[in-house]
Amino acid sequence: MQTHKGARSHQEFEGCTPTPKGLGDSTHMVLERNWEHQAPMYSRIYSRGTADYASTLIDLEKAFQLRDRRVRCIDEGTPGGIRLTGLGILLGFDKAIEVLREAKVEGVHPHEGCGACDLHAKKVCTETKPDEIGIEWGKKLAAELGVPYSGFISADAMSRPREGHIARAAYYDGTGRFDCTGSLGLPPGFVVSRRHLNNHVDYARSEAEIAITIALGPHGYGMERITDETPFMLVAIGDPADPMHSTERLMDELRPLELKLNGAVRVDGFTAPGRRI
Fold first, then answer.
1. What pTM does this model have?
2. 3-state DSSP call for residue 122?
């Protein structure tokens, strides 16, 4: 394992570290194929920066056209809609309702194998299975918000391997309308709906930290792959029409996380297409 000056191991990060189980051979092979598939994109991102790279994508605007406003986890396997880790279970019910109501969510989608629900189960010392916690939490949110419970996303229905995470980036979205799957040229990534967390900036940053934890942990690529030469990317996405959510401001919020793993995490960003004020 490569080490880094001043680095902290992934176990030292705050957030939801998945319980180590190891990856099966087939999942490991899928992760390796995805690493190689993403390599040309990341080669350009590392050398040119995300702003320059994003400017070359002819379909970038499609990444800012949400197909729905249902809430999902930040997991890269559950793309689309509004994003909160574990549907906000680590934020607490009242605060989660506040955020989701202001975000005008239209449905609720928990998913199988949610690390946040697993962490919650450990914190409250319950023997209830994390998946059952996620379903109960989702239905409770839906009832309070007066929106449909849109269904449980099984691991087989997720856009990643059942036991492995292929994300090498986390998008810190200041627009509230970002879905990286809309553009063919954007690599898959966790998505933090920062735009909807204006009253909870520290929590928003903790979601980005959770993404790092997962990527560096036993269900991600780990520190054997994520190094100072191939760092995990924290990508701030600024709103061109709102200085309160500018790329530079959001990048500044993420800088403390960059320092926690010297070199293995890099903060960068780009501004969404649109007219600046």
1. 0.90
2. helix
Residues 6 or more apart in contact with residue 32 via CB below 8 angstroms: none
Beta strands in 145-188 (DSSP E): 169-173
What is the number of alpha carbons within 13 Å of residue 193 lying toward its C-beta? 31
Are 268 and 248 within 8 A, CB to CB?
Answer: no
Determine phi and psi for 79, rounding to 5 degrees: -70, 160
**Confidence class for position 29, pLDDT limits 50, 70, 90:** confident
Q: What percent of the chain has pLDDT over 90?
A: 82
CB 143 within 8 A of CB 135: no
Kind of pairing between the strands at 265-271 and 232-238: parallel
Q: In the chain, what is the straight-line distance between the N-terminal and C-terminal CA atoms, in Å? A: 47
**Reduced 3-state DSSP string for 215-237:** HHCCCCCHHHHCCCCCCEEEEEE
Give how far the C-alpha of residue 163 lies from the chain's centroid of Cα atoms, to the nearest Å. Answer: 16
User: Tens of pLDDT along 194-230?
Assistant: 999 999 999 999 999 999 999 999 889 998 899 999 9
- E-strand ranges in 56-157 read 70-72, 82-83, 107-108
